[in-house]
Write a structure and sequence with these properties.
heterodimer, B: alpha/beta, two-stranded antiparallel sheet, 26% strand, globular
């Protein structure tokens, strides 16, 4: 089965890249963009067939490697 | 005094760190990241600067999980010295040997220049050769040196005088101007600036050599 992990900087952690994107959008004439946060999407192909087991395994991967929980939060989708 | 310098694919300050340790009087072993054990009798582990694993995923994240790091953790747990410079600092935060994290520079640009640091404490083997409050000149060269930590961590770092170096003129947006921090037992130091690049008169100065000499003297006199 496939899993998709979203990794985002936690609220309150300044995202300089998101801020730069917000400025660039403003310069292009896109008004009304109050905030931009930039994150990552990681897609995994798993040989696991049980959704709960897959979710548990991917969560462990996030804790150990895919996210740095000091500064990032993550969510896991399994399909 | 025997130092090990860990080498990852993408390390580029490993040989400079070796020369700085050797000039200070240490014997140095270069250790490949896939090795599973440090050589016997290692006093200090150096984690060098560079772009380990191309900075993929997050700076230092892949290196922090390299096979050698189990042995580096054991070394630190036994009270061994660990020095992480630049990418080495990023790796040490990823391993949890030091708190906090290094984010993209606030100005988004790679910063490469010689800057002034304020030595915040002389109470460590790394900083014993400096006077607290003195200023030194050391190069920085990084894209992700913007130190962040939660409020409790920052309070603890200040209260225990574990901030080793602060930027005089902050180049990257680091919280509290933090350029380098010590572990609780003061035996693990991570810093973004490069002392090994200011360790010989031909570098333009020797302010960084003081750190390596202090460390070697501390081990030899212990």
């Amino acid at each position: 089965m496939k899993a998709r992990v979203h990794v985002m900087l936690k609220e309150g952690v300044l995202d300089p890249q998101g801020e730069a994107v917000r400025h660039a959008l403003g310069q292009l004439g896109f008004q009304g963009v109050d905030g931009v946060r930039q994150g990552k999407v990681i897609e995994l192909d798993l040989d696991e067939t049980d959704a709960d087991a897959a979710r548990a395994r991917v969560t462990e991967m996030c804790e150990k490697l895919l996210a740095n929980t000091v500064i990032e939060r993550y969510s896991v989708e399994v399909q | 005094m025997h130092a090990a310098v860990i080498v990852f694919p993408g390390s580029n300050c490993d040989r400079d760190m070796r020369v700085a340790f050797e000039t200070a009087g240490a014997r140095v072993s270069m250790v490949w990241h896939k090795d599973t054990a440090l050589p016997g009798g290692i006093d200090v582990v150096g984690v060098p600067g560079g772009f380990s694993f191309g900075d993929y995923l997050r700076c230092g994240a892949i290196a922090a999980n390299a096979p050698i790091f189990r042995s580096v953790r054991d070394h630190a747990a036994r009270g061994g010295f660990v020095l992480g410079v630049c990418n080495g600092f990023q790796i040490l935060t990823e391993t949890g040997l030091l708190p906090g994290a290094l984010l993209r520079n606030a100005g988004l640009k790679f910063v490469c220049k010689t800057i002034d640091l304020s030595v915040e404490t002389s109470d460590s083997a790394f900083t014993r050769g400096y006077n607290a409050g003195s200023r030194i000149s050391v190069p920085v060269a990084h894209h992700d040196g913007n130190y962040v930590a939660d409020a409790d961590t920052l309070r603890a770092l200040r209260a225990d005088e574990r901030v080793a170096f602060r930027y005089v003129d902050n180049p990257n947006g680091a919280t509290d101007d933090i350029a380098g921090i010590l572990s609780e037992n003061r035996r693990v130091l991570g810093m973004m600036p490069h002392p090994e690049r200011m360790a010989d008169p031909v570098h333009g100065g020797t302010d960084g050599a003081v750190l390596f000499r202090g460390l070697v003297e501390d081990v030899v006199s212990a």
